[in-house]
């Protein structure tokens, strides 16, 4: 198991709270789920708090050895501790620990548990860690039963783990059996690891990037079980299409132990079920297994699978089918696939079984797989399409290589559409590394490598150079490569080169799609450089009949974002609605993601915070399990959280977006992500966070200048920097930044309002509150006219703060109440919290209403109440940790849960929540 509890922060925080509230906590779960790792982390936390930790880890093979559990627990103590006991208990305990003869009679047997109780009382506070109570020897269990019933009185807490079958709860003990856990023990399941945590766990494997497809398959098969995942990863390597997932023998033994005694016929039925995508009694009977219903029922009785009323079977754990297939002989697997190929009605499934039944090269099988892959692609099943096309290439017989090349290139295209870059690279490489294909296929292969590279610039430079050299003198083939060069120039921060390359691509293009895509990109670049008229001209020229759905969608999206940046929200909404109305079947993941990011940007500006959170969530889920770290997806998530979610989460996602963009060399999304991060930090109102925001924005200034950006986004970014500088007291530098921003050509109402807001704050800070308030009111009126509610709320909050400092309390209250009501109407908690902090600074007045936080006793646990009370009194996290004998990390986790439960985001609003009357 890993040395740290990856992905277990919430579980650890919950278990820590329960350990403070109960004398016993039992963590339970199936084999390999990570119980030992979790209790090790909890034990380490207890040690850091000054608690004595005694631990035993019983094993099944030692269960018959008396007192071995007690020896593990107490054998580590110095002899002096035992010598301090009274004579009879000391003698009894020493003999139980194999340091003397065991005393006879009932009195002698009683002396051992009495000795342990006295010893633990002297050591208190003590945490007993019983890692695997199902294997405790009976004499040790009897002593611990005695201790458990007295644990609270002697300063002992018991943290135990129990192994239970997949999907089951801890069962009752046998009548008369000892119970090593105290009465009222809290039972807590150890859940599967989340996909992100599983990816983090597997990312430490050597060559993790090159093994990304295998590691993703391992993550899916392990279904959150870290032991299963690490065991599978230990023997993994690159695999050919259709090759069986290798399940190590010791893992197969663990998973299939209950099936070893089954008759051969029943095991074959379970093998058939394992090979089928959607096994059922009817399907397996059609595949020739007459006894399928009884064999499936037997498997259900053994706890291997669950049976629905309609006869559909589902394995309890997704690794069980892989283990059954790996455990079977090759001939048996092929026979099962052959039988299923004749029984399944779905063409893609039939083709897959046919290929796995015939591992030799066969053109008939390859042709059927090719057709099935194309059908899967049309219905949007990109991963299935890739797998079938890759199998088709593998089954293609020797001969002229063109047919195999085409199938490999098709597989790569399907992988790109599905957001599977490593799979795409694997499919393309044999085309470029083998006998030289014709120029058209070489060019297509390079374009697919560019598509697989996505936002990562370092993966595309050589591909572009080689492709452009190769296609010199072939303008129609060179045009898409020049378009790719334009995209990468833009991401790399060279808008001048991007415009040049996009124009060149449009001039060379022989087909409407390439020309339209290049002109669309040219329009976006010109808009970013402040050339609005030329941008619209390029987009008009891009329109043409007969464009592919993907290119048409891309043009609509570009037009929508240009309208949005110009504050024409209604026009942008109409275009995004048009985009959503297009057929979605078969749309590539990259296109869907781009549309979702555009939707988040639109929803945030229109004040539809819940819709923004929903779209951002779909963007994140779109890439779940792909192993791809996406700056656009993280940016969209941060933007949505900043508007309608949690400020802490907005910062986390913005930092993730910044890291991903930095790693990819993507200057465009680095700028966007840094701005969201800075906005989130400034919204906290804390000086340290403000300094970090200003530093982050200053670091991006040179690259933004080199990109020659002159659009509304550039103005907003500079206005935000100026606002941060004002907050830090850097008024002169803020004036220089604002002067730089006013020299840019963009004059969207919101951009002008952002400059007026920053200047208004600067004037107020310089001692001119009347002038500052006037500018802020003018900015608010511009935003009212543009129907930008969240930007209006932020400006009203700034106006309220200026009026408060000028002691114009009525004006301040009016502005802040309006800001708060806007935030309530648009479900914008982070901005609402900021407005409420300013209202609180006004002192007594009407702050009641739906935004006021009210605390009820049921909302917090006892442990959370203690943490909340100390924080509300002004204690730091470190002071809270010292007072409660827990780690600072535990306090941070508990505080996050308190904020989430009460809907607050700062210590100040938490203090107010605790002091407010309960209604």
Automatic annotation (TrEMBL):
<dbReference type="InterPro" id="IPR027417">
    <property type="entry name" value="P-loop_NTPase"/>
</dbReference>
<dbReference type="InterPro" id="IPR041664">
    <property type="entry name" value="AAA_16"/>
</dbReference>
<keyword id="KW-0547">Nucleotide-binding</keyword>
<keyword id="KW-0067">ATP-binding</keyword>
<dbReference type="Pfam" id="PF13191">
    <property type="entry name" value="AAA_16"/>
</dbReference>
<dbReference type="Pfam" id="PF00196">
    <property type="entry name" value="GerE"/>
</dbReference>
<dbReference type="InterPro" id="IPR000792">
    <property type="entry name" value="Tscrpt_reg_LuxR_C"/>
</dbReference>
<feature type="domain" description="HTH luxR-type">
    <location>
        <begin position="853"/>
        <end position="918"/>
    </location>
</feature>
<protein>
    <submittedName>
        <fullName>LuxR family transcriptional regulator</fullName>
    </submittedName>
</protein>
<dbReference type="InterPro" id="IPR036388">
    <property type="entry name" value="WH-like_DNA-bd_sf"/>
</dbReference>
<dbReference type="InterPro" id="IPR016032">
    <property type="entry name" value="Sig_transdc_resp-reg_C-effctor"/>
</dbReference>
């Amino acid at each position: 198991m890993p040395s740290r509890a990856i992905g277990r922060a919430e579980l650890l925080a919950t278990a820590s709270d329960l350990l403070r509230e109960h004398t016993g906590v039992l963590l339970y779960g199936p084999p390999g789920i990570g119980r030992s790792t979790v209790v090790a982390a909890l034990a380490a936390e207890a040690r850091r708090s000054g608690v004595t930790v005694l631990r035993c880890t019983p094993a099944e093979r030692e269960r018959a050895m008396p007192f071995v559990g007690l020896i593990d627990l107490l054998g580590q103590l110095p002899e002096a501790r035992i010598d301090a006991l009274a004579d009879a208990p000391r003698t009894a305990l020493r003999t139980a620990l194999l340091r003397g003869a065991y005393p006879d009679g009932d009195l002698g047997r009683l002396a051992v548990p009495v000795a342990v109780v006295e010893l633990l009382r002297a050591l208190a506070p003590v945490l007993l860690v019983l890692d695997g109570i199902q294997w405790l020897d009976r004499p040790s269990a009897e002593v611990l039963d005695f201790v458990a019933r007295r644990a609270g009185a002697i300063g002992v807490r018991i943290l135990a783990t129990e192994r239970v079958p997949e999907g089951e709860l801890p069962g009752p003990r046998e009548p008369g059996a000892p119970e090593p856990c105290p009465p009222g023990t809290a039972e807590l399941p150890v859940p599967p690891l989340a996909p992100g945590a599983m990816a983090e766990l597997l990312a430490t494997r050597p060559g993790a990037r090159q093994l990304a497809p295998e590691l993703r398959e391992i993550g899916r098969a392990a279904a959150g079980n870290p032991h299963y995942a690490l065991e599978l990863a230990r023997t993994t390597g690159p695999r050919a299409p259709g090759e069986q997932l290798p399940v190590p023998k010791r893992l197969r033994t663990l998973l299939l132990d209950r099936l070893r005694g089954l008759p051969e016929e029943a095991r074959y039925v379970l093998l058939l079920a394992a090979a089928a995508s959607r096994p059922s009694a009817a399907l397996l009977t059609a595949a020739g297994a007459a006894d399928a219903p009884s064999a499936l029922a037997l498997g259900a009785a053994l706890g291997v699978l669950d049976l629905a009323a309609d006869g559909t079977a589902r394995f309890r754990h997704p690794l069980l089918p892989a283990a059954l297939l790996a455990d079977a002989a090759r001939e048996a697997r092929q026979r099962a696939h052959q039988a299923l190929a004749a029984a399944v009605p779905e063409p893609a499934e039939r083709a897959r079984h046919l290929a796995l039944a015939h591992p030799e090269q066969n053109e008939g099988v390859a042709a059927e797989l090719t057709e099935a892959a194309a059908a899967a692609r049309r219905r949007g099943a990109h991963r299935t399409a890739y797998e079938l096309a890759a199998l088709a290439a593998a089954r293609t017989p020797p001969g002229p290589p063109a047919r195999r090349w085409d199938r490999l290139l098709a597989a790569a295209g399907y992988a790109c559409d599905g957001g599977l870059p490593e799979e795409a690279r694997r499919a393309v490489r044999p085309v470029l590394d083998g006998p030289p294909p014709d120029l058209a296929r070489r060019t297509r292969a390079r374009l697919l490598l560019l598509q697989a590279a996505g936002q990562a610039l370092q993966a595309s430079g050589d591909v572009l150079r080689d492709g452009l050299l190769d296609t010199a003198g072939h303008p129609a083939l060179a045009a898409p490569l020049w378009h790719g060069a334009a995209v990468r120039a833009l991401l790399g921060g060279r808008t001048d080169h991007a415009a040049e390359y996009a124009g060149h691509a449009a001039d060379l293009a022989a087909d409407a799609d390439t020309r339209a895509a290049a002109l669309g990109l040219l329009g976006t670049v010109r808009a970013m450089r402040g050339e609005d008229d030329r941008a619209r001209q390029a987009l008009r020229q891009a329109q043409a009949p007969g464009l592919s759905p993907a290119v048409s969608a891309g043009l609509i999206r570009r037009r929508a974002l240009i309208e949005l940046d110009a504050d024409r929200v209604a026009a942008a909404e109409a275009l995004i609605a048009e985009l959503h109305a297009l057929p979605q079947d078969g749309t590539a993941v990259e296109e869907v993601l781009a549309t979702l990011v555009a939707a988040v940007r639109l929803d945030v500006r229109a004040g539809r915070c819940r819709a923004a959170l929903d779209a951002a969530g779909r963007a994140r889920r779109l890439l779940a399990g792909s192993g791809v770290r996406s700056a656009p997806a993280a940016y969209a998530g941060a933007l949505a959280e900043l508007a309608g979610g949690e400020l802490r989460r907005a910062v986390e996602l913005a930092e993730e977006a910044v890291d991903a963009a930095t790693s990819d060399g993507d200057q465009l999304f680095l700028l966007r992500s840094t701005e969201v991060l800075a906005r989130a930090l400034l919204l906290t109102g804390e000086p340290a966070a403000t300094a970090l925001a200003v530093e982050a924005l200053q670091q991006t200034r040179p690259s933004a200048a080199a990109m020659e950006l002159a659009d509304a986004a550039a103005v907003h970014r500079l206005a935000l920097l100026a606002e941060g500088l004002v907050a830090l007291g850097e008024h002169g530098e803020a004036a220089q930044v604002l002067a730089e921003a006013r020299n840019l050509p963009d004059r969207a109402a919101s951009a002008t309002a952002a400059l007026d807001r920053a200047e208004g704050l600067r004037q107020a800070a310089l001692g001119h509150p009347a002038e500052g308030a006037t500018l802020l009111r003018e900015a608010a009126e511009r935003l009212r006219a543009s129907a930008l509610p969240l930007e209006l709320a932020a400006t009203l909050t700034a106006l309220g703060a200026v009026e408060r400092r000028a002691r114009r309390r009525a004006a301040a209250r009016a502005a802040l109440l309006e800001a708060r009501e806007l935030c309530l109407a648009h479900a914008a908690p982070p901005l609402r919290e900021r407005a409420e902090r300013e209202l609180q600074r006004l002192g007594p007045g009407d702050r009641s209403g739906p935004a006021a936080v009210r605390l009820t006793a049921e909302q917090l646990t006892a442990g959370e109440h203690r943490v909340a009370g100390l924080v509300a009194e002004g204690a730091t996290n470190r002071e809270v940790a010292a007072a409660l004998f827990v780690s600072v990390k535990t306090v941070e986790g508990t505080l996050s849960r308190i904020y989430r439960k009460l809907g607050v985001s700062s210590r100040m609003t938490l203090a107010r929540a605790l002091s407010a009357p309960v209604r």
